[in-house]
Amino acid sequence: MDGRLRTVLVTAVVAAFALVTPLPASATVPGPPPVGPGVDEIVSSDNLTQLANVPRRDPFTGEASYGTDIAFQGELAYVGNYDGFVVYDISEPTAPQIVSQVLCPGSQNDVSVSGDLLFLSTDSRWSDDTCSAAPQPQGLLPYWEGIKVFDVSDPADPAYVTSVATACGSHTHTLVPDTAGESVYLYVSSYSPAPELLDCRPPHDRISIVEVPLADPAAAAVVAEPVLFPDGGNPGPGSDTTTGCHDITVHPATNLAAGACMGDGVLLDISDREDPQVIERVRDDTNFAFWHSATFNDDGTKVVFTDELGGGSAATCTAAVGPLRGADGIYDIVDGQLEFRSYYKIPRLQTEQENCVAHNGSLVPVPGRDVMVQAWYQGGISVWDFTDSTNPVEIGFWERGPLSSTELTLGGSWSAYWYNGHVFSSDIQKGLDVLAVDDPAIAGAEDVVFDVFNPQTQPTYGG
């Protein structure tokens, strides 16, 4: 069913955006107070500390060589970049080292890993599926976009294995283990069809499902294209028109998935990996502009959806935008239905020179509580508690000042994830950051260790 907004008990977050009481006419009016740190200045709460930063290195130093999403396995972090991906040794969190860099342009180059395999998303048109392809902006000419597969058994020398073309490319993908352990599935999210695109013409109200046989990854292929929105989805204009999904997060322990699909938020039953079924659908045409991503709590009874107002390139953490837009929406799952509880947005104003909006994050594995770390682009990194779904509370924050004091330059934390005791952040322009969190509110999280962590494939930790 479609969700309906309820009256929201707005927490102390609103105070940061409250209007100042006008001064009497005779009073001296001071200049506007400074907002946030200065250019490249770092500020944080006392409980978050930066341990390391590894700057981008050639050939990934151009302004458009954006750092993107992260996947983890053992003592390695794999970080996507619009120009390829980077493998880091994170065995010493205070001194991460670059192991290798693979030049393979193709936005966004989001990554996931499974065993010796790495999967890379390409959502831009190229002359072919190689890493030396030329851009192919004219959609009426033949082009390629989709999934690339690499063998990373030697992390110092990843090897290209194969590719799979998918309709409308692969903006993001989600790794879903099969129940028999013989294959992995990739749920490929893509959107924005257009009549002039040969392989992405409307309607496009579906996802692509790629099966990768683990014994023969070169045989990877599209095995299904389930239509999630047979009625066409949200027509807008309050939210973006639904023409596919931006991101899907799966919770294999409960056979659930949460899809953030532009104008719709959906809950899916993925018991049949090749035939996911929409079991619930919600909308928020008042405050959500673009349903971007989703995170379950550990037991799969809540979902945090993000609204990427402005597409990630706008300054939306401002007094003019307010605390309810460009925020997280917290939903409880009650008898299979998504019930809205509250919004969460960082309680700090940012400047007009900083792109800032809710973006990628993950759970901090705190036993018995629902705690999340999250990237907000140039709004930095926030650690917050949503155990009480109606009253989310920030635990701590860390942020780097704007890239410029005069113009908005795209930057900031694209993804911030907790992995085996630390927060790892992929900064669009600044490379890899590593943070420590020291707060009794996350007691026990440091004891939870995963062998592999793809943030959109949520493991459970018995929270």
UniProtKB/TrEMBL annotation:
<dbReference type="Pfam" id="PF08309">
    <property type="entry name" value="LVIVD"/>
</dbReference>
<feature type="signal peptide">
    <location>
        <begin position="1"/>
        <end position="27"/>
    </location>
</feature>
<dbReference type="InterPro" id="IPR013211">
    <property type="entry name" value="LVIVD"/>
</dbReference>
<protein>
    <recommendedName>
        <fullName>LVIVD repeat-containing protein</fullName>
    </recommendedName>
</protein>
<keyword id="KW-0732">Signal</keyword>
